[in-house]
Amino acid sequence: MANPNVKMASADWLWIALLSVIWGGSFIFIKLALTGFQPLSVVAIRLGIGTMLMGTWLVASGRIPHLTRDRVLAVAMMGFLNNAAPFILLTWAQTELTAGLASIFNAMTPLFTILVAHLWTSDDRITPSRLFALVTGFAGVVILMGGESLSDLGSSLWAQIAALSSGIFYALAGVYGRRISHLGIAPDAAAAGQFIAAFVLVAPLALVIDRPWTLAAPGAVAWGGILALAILSTAIAYLIFFKILARSGATNAALVTFLVPISAILMAVTFLDEILTVPQLAGMALIFAGLAVADGRLAGRLLRSKLRP
User: Fold this and answer.
1) pTM to 2 decimal places
2) In terms of Cα–Cα distance, which of 182, 227, 175, 200 is closest to 76?
């Protein structure tokens, strides 16, 4: 992991802010796409366009990797864990949840990563501060879901569980992704390979389950949402992320986790007229507090400020 004390230039912060807006916008774009497409079709088209754009980038930049059996299997697994499964869960969840609420549930991803890393690795264990972060984050989820949802096993509850589960898949992908780096696959090449593998998995499901040819033709709003989702929030977003990764390291790149839900909520309130309730705001605050503790930098800065004469 990169040194969290690496100083970032103003340009790095601008790239992180831009990425948070683009990824925050994905929740809005999904909502718009769902006005004319079924969930599986949204994911399949998103991955298909993302594959074409990332593939074009690799060919144009001469970065096509040498393929081996181990590399193909590893990238295929990442395509399932990091793209196919979470994309399907989040997209389906938003048939019932607001964009803002889905983004808050998805913000649990780094905390799930702490738990998965503790269970699956021998060198990344849960510390007292990480345990506190987990408890705080899960308390926020309980408040978000609320007693009413837990007592009524309706579609909204299952949608919330789906949104949370997407974070678990992202966490699994984060831990499994170490295998990608050990195999010497460049991040952009790995992303393109993931998109291809995920598209191969999702496209047949979309054809069999959604049967898109039997549905009415999507309107301009739905097409606009799905194109923005594929071009901005998939292909371009990954390229920006890799740029941040190269300039500032993985730890600083993870700061985008704090900003994505905020961007999503502000855009949802502005463009979709969504309203956040007091319990939802309280749950979001607890999740963010857990993220801050897990990240460690905020606490470190506060401690250093107290130690100064």
Assistant:
1) 0.84
2) 200
